[in-house]
């Protein structure tokens, strides 16, 4: 018989879990994984139609909200609407693949707003309740690009590196209040965000060749890690950004 802690570790019954970007590839995998733990799911995305269609596939207690993570008023409204949240998966994001010299300052601002300012603002709003209740977990979805350079991705990488650094300081600030802040830096996953890869077979294969395990990752692999990090098994993991990239950033 497995010990009690092992059996109960991944039971999130009675917990409310918010996944942003839940209509997307990783967001759907996160939502499915946490729904399977028994959690009450709160799903949010800018694409309300795709989110509603996805939510119909899930069983259990599911609420859906449309919001724009690039708009501070929309983030505040989401935080008000969702009420008490035990686990935040700060997952929504956008990619910009463009040479820096062709990138406008307005494009830079939008990427930073959606990928960095928005997740920080949402974490800050929800941490009010989490710190008051003395419990909560925030998982920020960063990227392997927080740890290495890549052509055409400077602004995206800057936002994701910012999120990893935010994770450390927020973890220090809220740790004594019972709120654990961690991050995951996924390697390349095949989702809507990376459909552009499918258009260039040579680039697709060259990308795989650079991954030590010889393949891209799956959203489900990241979702399993997220369940672990949100669970009591990871109670002493604080401020860490866990890189899950098949070894890509090792060189
Ligand atoms: N796919 C990868 O290779 C990869 C690698 C590392 C990190 N990530 C990160 O994982 C997260 C999920 O990405 P994905 O691969 O599932 O991409 P995706 O494009 O499939 O999903 C992203 C979701 O975020 C939503 N979204 C976009 N802008 C939004 C906004 N302003 N407000 C609210 N929602 C918004 C989209 O509608 C979409 O449903 C992102 O933060 C991304 O940066 C992805």
SSE ordering? HEHEHEHEHEHEHHE
What small ligands are held by the chains?
nicotinamide-adenine-dinucleotide
At the fourth CATH level, what is the homologous superfamily of the domain at 12-94 and 116-147 and 160-187 and 221-239? NAD(P)-binding Rossmann-like Domain
Q: How does the helix and strand content classify structurally?
A: alpha/beta
Q: What radius of gyration results from the CA coordinates?
A: 18 Å
Tell me what the CATH architecture of the domain at 12-94 and 116-147 and 160-187 and 221-239 is: 3-Layer(aba) Sandwich
- Say what the CATH topology of the domain at 12-94 and 116-147 and 160-187 and 221-239 is: Rossmann fold
Largest sheet: 7 strands, parallel
Instruction: Give the helix tally.
Output: 8
Shape: globular
- Total strands: 7
Structural features, described:
The protein is an alpha/beta fold and 251 residues long. The chain has a domain at 12-94 and 116-147 and 160-187 and 221-239: NAD(P)-binding Rossmann-like Domain (Rossmann fold, 3-Layer(aba) Sandwich). The protein contains 8 helices and 7 strands; from the N terminus they run αβαβαβαβαβαβααβ. It has helices at residues 4-8, 25-36, 48-55, 72-82, 105-133, 154-174, 201-209, 219-230, and strands at 16-20, 40-45, 62-66, 87-90, 136-141, 179-186, 241-244. The protein has a 7-stranded parallel β-sheet with strand order 3-2-1-4-5-6-7, with helices on both faces. β2 (40-45), α3 (48-55) and β3 (62-66) form a beta-alpha-beta unit. α2 crosses α8, α4 packs parallel to α5 and α5 (105-133) runs parallel beside α6. The longest helix has 29 residues, at 105-133. The model has no long low-confidence stretch (mean pLDDT 96). The site of nicotinamide-adenine-dinucleotide has 27 residues, from α2.
């Amino acid at each position: 018989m497995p010990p009690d802690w092992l059996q109960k570790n991944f039971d999130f019954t009675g917990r409310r879990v918010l996944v942003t970007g839940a209509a997307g590839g990783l967001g759907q995998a996160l939502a499915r994984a946490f729904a399977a733990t028994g959690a009450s799911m709160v799903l949010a995305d800018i694409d309300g139609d795709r989110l509603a269609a996805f939510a119909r596939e899930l069983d259990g207690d599911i609420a859906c909200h449309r919001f724009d993570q690039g708009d501070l008023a929309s983030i505040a409204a989401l935080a008000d609407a969702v009420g008490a949240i035990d686990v935040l998966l700060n997952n929504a994001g956008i990619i910009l693949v463009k040479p820096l010299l062709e990138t406008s300052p307005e494009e830079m601002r939008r990427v930073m707003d959606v990928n960095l300012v928005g997740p920080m603002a949402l974490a800050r709003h929800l941490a009010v309740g989490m710190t008051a209740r003395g419990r909560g977990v925030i998982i920020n979805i960063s990227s392997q690009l927080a740890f290495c350079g890549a052509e055409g991705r400077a602004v995206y990488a800057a936002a994701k590196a910012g999120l990893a650094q935010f994770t450390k300081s927020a973890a220090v600030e809220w740790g004594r209040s019972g709120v654990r802040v961690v991050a995951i830096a996924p390697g390349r996953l095949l989702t809507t965000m990376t459909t552009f890869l499918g258009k260039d077979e040579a680039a697709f294969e060259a990308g795989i060749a650079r991954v030590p395990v010889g393949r891209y990752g799956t959203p489900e692999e990241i979702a399993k890690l997220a369940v672990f990090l949100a669970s009591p098994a990871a109670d002493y993991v604080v401020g860490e950004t866990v890189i899950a990239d098949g070894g890509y950033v090792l060189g």
